[in-house]
Amino acid sequence: MSADAHDHPNFFQPLPGTKGGIASWIFSTDHKRIGMLYLYCIVAMFLVGLTLGFLIRLELIAPGRTIMGPQTYNALFTLHGVVMIFLVVIPSIPAAFGNIFLPIQIGAEDVSFPRLNIFSWWLYVTGAVLAVVSLVTGKGAPDTGWTFYVPFSAVTTTNVDVAVIAVFILGFSSILTGLNFITTLHRLRAPGMTWTRLPLFCWSLYATGWIQVLATPVLGITVLLIFAERVLGVGLFDPSRGGDPILYQHLFWIYSHPAVYIMILPAMGVISEILPVFARKPIFGYKMIAFSSLAIAFAGSLVWAHHMFVSGMSDTAVMVFSFLTFVVAIPSAIKVFNWVSTLYKGSIRVEPPLWYALAFIFLFSIGGLTGLVLGSAGTDVHVHDTYFVVAHFHYVIFGGLGFGLFGAMHYWFPKIYGRMYDKRIANWSCLIAFVGFNILYFPMFIIGLQGMPRRYYDYLPKYAEGHFISTMGSWVLATGLLLMFWNLWRGIRHGKPVGRNPWGAATLEWMVPSPPPHHNFEAEPVVTHGPYDYTGVKPDA
Amino acid sequence: MHEHRDYEGAKIGMWLFLFTEVLLFGGLFLLYAVYLHRYPAEFHAAGKDLSRIFGTANTIVLISSSLCMALAISALQRGKVLLSQRLVLLTVAMAGVFLVNKFFEWSAKIGHGIYPNSPGLLALPPGEMVFFNLYYLMTGLHGIHVIIGGAVLLYGWRLMRAGRVTPEHFVFLENGGLYWHLVDLVWIYLFPLFYLVV
Amino acid sequence: AMLWFVWHYRESRHPVPAQISGNVPAEIAWTLIPSILVMGLFYYGWEGYKALRTVPEGAMEVKVTARMWSWVFEYPGGKRNSVLVVPVDTPVKLRMTSVDVIHSLYVPAFRIKMDTVPGMETYAWFKADRPGEYDLLCAEYCGLKHANMITTVKVVDKAAFDTWLASTETPGGKGRALMETHGCISCHSLDGTPGVGPTFKDLYGAEREVALPDGSKRKVFADEGYLRRAFTDPNGEVVVGYDPIMPSTEGMVPNEDMEQMLAWLMHGNEVGREEGRRLMEAEGCISCHSTDGSIIAGPSLKGLWNAPTTVLRDGKEQQVTADEAYLRAKIANAPSLGTVKGYDPMMPPYEHLTPEQLGSMVEYIKSLGEHAH
User: Fold this and answer.
1) Which of A177, A447, A517, B129, by CA, is between 20 and 30 Å from A525?
2) Do A179 and B27 lie within an 8 Å CB cutoff?
């Protein structure tokens, strides 16, 4: 532990005069403790999702039945989706790192509504528990896919009811977090922390917060309607009762497409933090990056129906949504260009977080470019609902958000724990995961183009080669990730103690001791310079 | 940790929350709009079956309760705590009247065999089925909001009695009032959509 | 460029970072250039999409019905098949719907995909350039056997297609059709109902009492010899209770036609069975009901005949026997008969089947073995 950490009890230790223990965590209103609770839950859920994905790949190693029957397989990919999307990806960076660092980065003592904050963690846990309960109760685990498309989700006898209630509760948790962040950013910035001095991570959380607040309620009502249809027979999407199942898809994607940006924007924020620190120069085009976050949040809310080009909606709608989809590509491209130029003529120190950030940019770019193939109506008809889509969104979400999350873990690790993990192992695990990732998902583009539909338990022999390579890749990827988690775990206990600012960053969280004390700052900080002004900032360890 | 009071922040948070509530109903209004466009004649026919007397009465009750609530807040701001307490109770009482009214209206409809999944409903033309399904869903969801709103206001009343909501610290009651206005507002849209659609 | 920057500007080589925080012309450039590029991509994508949605004049229309987990293709003229047979070089318009959940018709080889949605009709079109067999898959997740909802598009030359389309596959093949052509079945029913003449049902091998022209009566077995005589000299031996009004087929019916009809009368049951099997494949029954005793989504057809069955109907349990009446009603309109205990209520009604088709399906089920008591 570094020297100055002893002056104050840090947030891992009980407050002076209290006992500590588990209750001091799960009823804590301290944003850092809540963030840590989220972080551990998310990592645990990620491992669950990873195992499910691993089993799916194992089943697909050869055509026909390998290790499980079709019903089990269908339940597995549904759960993989539900766990990864609702329990890992959506909360991941905002709820964990956002909670821990957003208040510190703006010089605040806590978020605006600390009690609401712990309440949303409790909602998250309730949702997670319900998701697990849905596996073991009723007539078996849900087998609808995470999209819960009607009429299938209304007629299947598996336990969809509990699962949609879980999703509803998780959505509520997400709304409360977003609402908390927006209010915090408006009200609790320290003196001198103007909007243009706000770290880009905060900007991205601000944009994310708005999407959470605006889009999630629509998901809430949509899953409630499934519940109403199943339990009460209110068949608003049932064609035999005058309903229209395509309207469900509209409502669902009105939320779930913006949700993609809930997933990716915070990761973009993390990357915008990491790159300048290791390039030792200000981020290129601060305003453009901040602005493009908002532009993505706005335009991204208007493109939902590009998931539905072959659903039977009108051709005019296809044209409009295809057009808007291309519009979203522009701010994303701007971001990538700005990141790359941040590296230009920098003085680059290559450390693990930077490797993860570079992997992010590379994988996200591939995901983004293949997204154009899907956004273009003519080509989408062919590749829609094939493995091409599976590959595309794994590149964007796992390659993008996932690597962003790992980058965040490696970047803020020394701040949270006051120790450093083994950097050499960290670099290796990043490389192995990166290679495994590409072996896993790249062949999917190819078999997707050849016409392999997704959500297939079994497949025609002509796709066997691609599936086999893909499964091999899943082993490499899993190895890399396990190595990474093991290395971080080891770092918590045996890592070398470091000081306040091992990377030499200029944002406020690096000005406080590591780990941060209970109330973050001894005195309210006054901000006098921008977040990426490295003049005079030296790494101290 | 020092006592942290940020009225402005509390109100921003509340407005954001109200926003999410509006959007929650927004999804249903969207469905209503699409289906009205698809089945104008059936909506017209089904709308005639609803009792406009019940609907109008409930609209009047809710609007007056909203007024009552606004008066309660301004009374509190002017230091008339007792008057404010009474006005809040009156608001809650009106919420109760609304619910009782709604209960009778629903019972009458259910008595006629028109409720979700009922044989009577399934015999209707598709457009009318959609109409009644939407009717039960939207008024049901609204009813749940009336109950929640009433509970919040009742809690606000207790806080006032306990001296935790005072003429100086009235943000809880103000936010509760905002929520109540939202409940009222949603009804003001529901009423013409279902009862006056003819 | 990214990796090159990382290498080129690494700390040891480039210790002092340049303090660049932005460059307005560059920002404008990389906002505008991608904008123009993506708009171009959008345009071509849209053009391609329009082509997929514009059906040429005079396309052949095929009705597609998707259900868990099979496809039925219906041609103009009413022919139904589970494999999509189309002529080469002819635009084909598929008018699609679904009877249960959303499916999606996907033919990778022709780059077409369209969801089939219950309660509405969607369409897609294609023109096959080369004869051959192509995969047709379901691309929208639809439950247990989604991955097996695969069939074939068979592209054949035009002549072969016309022959195929014209070939009738009424139960019993040609003999059965000839019975209709020559008007036999207007007097002799196929299902046992009495008509002007005795029914054909279970005729072959049965013992009958006949009246001879001289008024005397005797018993005969309806063997091949008797049936032949019944064609050529119908009033020589008339079944008791019927009038001797049938004209001789001599000179009216070509000999070979008579042989065909005779064959059908003698082996009609087996033919019916075969027809039942073909129908159950075409209608997709066997994608849920196995014929070997294994359980897919519904009870196996093997050993189903006369099996005692518990049915949940309106929340109550009922005991029924899977006899002819039950099976016919169940196939024709499953939802009205409740659900077999232990299974999900997902079987759609098959109201388009004729009583004869239902009969041959039941024949087929019978042939798969009776329930072992």
Assistant:
1) A177
2) no
Q: Determine, for residues B117 and A244 on separate chains, whether the beta-carbon distance falls below 8 Å.
A: no
Nearest to A462 by CA among C127, C111, C134, C103: C134
Give the A window 284-343 contacts with C, CB below 8 Å. Answer: 284-288, 309-312, 315, 318-319, 322-323, 326-327, 329-330, 333-334, 337-338, 340-341, 343
- Against chain A, the chains showing at least 3 CB pairs within 8 Å are B, C
Q: What is the distance of C-alpha C305 from the center of its chain?
A: 22
Rounded to whole angstroms, the Cα distance separating C321 from C303 reads: 12
CA–CA distances in Å: residue C141 to residues A290, A472, C346: 39, 25, 16
Q: Where would I find the H helices in A137-242?
A: 152-155, 160-187, 200-227
Q: How many CB atoms lie within 10 A of CB A258?
A: 27
Which of A217-221, A419-423, B86-90 has the least mean pLDDT? A217-221
Residue A242 is nearest to which of B1, B20, B127, comparing CB atoms? B127
Range A28-511: architecture per CATH: Up-down Bundle (1.20)
β pairing state of C238-239 and C207-211:
antiparallel
Give the whole-angstrom CA distance, residue C124 versus residue C94.
Answer: 5
User: Could you give phi then psi for residue A168, rounded to 5 degrees?
Assistant: -60, -45
Q: Which tokens in the block code for residue A85?
A: 């999307």
- Whole-angstrom CA distances from A167 to A119, A125, B18, C232 are 16, 12, 21, 77
CB-based contact A112 B21, cutoff 8 Å: no
B125/A242 touch (CB, cutoff 8 Å), yes or no: yes
**What residues does C97 pair with on adjacent strands?**
C65
Residues in chain C with pLDDT values less than 50? 171
pLDDT tens for each residue of A464-512:
999 999 999 999 999 999 999 999 999 998 888 888 888 888 888 888 8
Tell me the domain boundaries of chain A.
28-511
**For chain B, percent of residues with pLDDT exceeding 90:** 25
Of the ranges A115-124, A292-301, A357-366, which one carries the lowest mean pLDDT score? A292-301
Q: Residue A7: which pLDDT band, with cuts at 50, 70 and 90?
A: low
Parallel/antiparallel/unpaired status of strands C103-107 and C112-116: antiparallel
Report the half-sphere exposure of A506 (CA within 13 A, side-chain side).
Answer: 25
Give yes or no for a contact between A229 and A236, defined as CB atoms under 8 angstroms apart: yes
Alpha helices in chain C (DSSP H): 2-8, 24-53, 158-166, 173-181, 224-232, 255-282, 324-332, 355-367
At which residue do the structure tokens 């997707």 appear? A448
In which band, very low, low, confident or very high, does the pLDDT at A5 lie, cut at 50, 70 and 90? very low
Instruction: Summarize the confidence of residues A313-322 as an average pLDDT.
Output: 83
How far, in Å, CA of B57 to CA of B103, rounded? 13
Is A138:A159 a contact under the CB 8 Å cutoff?
A: yes
Q: Which amino acid is at A220?
A: G
Q: Which of A246, A358, A377 sits opposite C46 (nearest CB)?
A: A377
Distance (Å) from the alpha carbon of C15 to chain A's nearest alpha carbon: 5
Q: Which domains does chain B have, with CATH numbers?
A: 7-195 (1.20.120.80)
Secondary structure of chain A: what % helix, strand, coil (to 5)?
A: 70, 0, 30
User: Residues of B24-37 as b/e, b for ≥16 C-beta within 10 angstroms?
Assistant: bbbbbbbbbeebbe
Q: Which residues of C touch A74 (CB under 8 A)?
A: 141, 143-144, 146
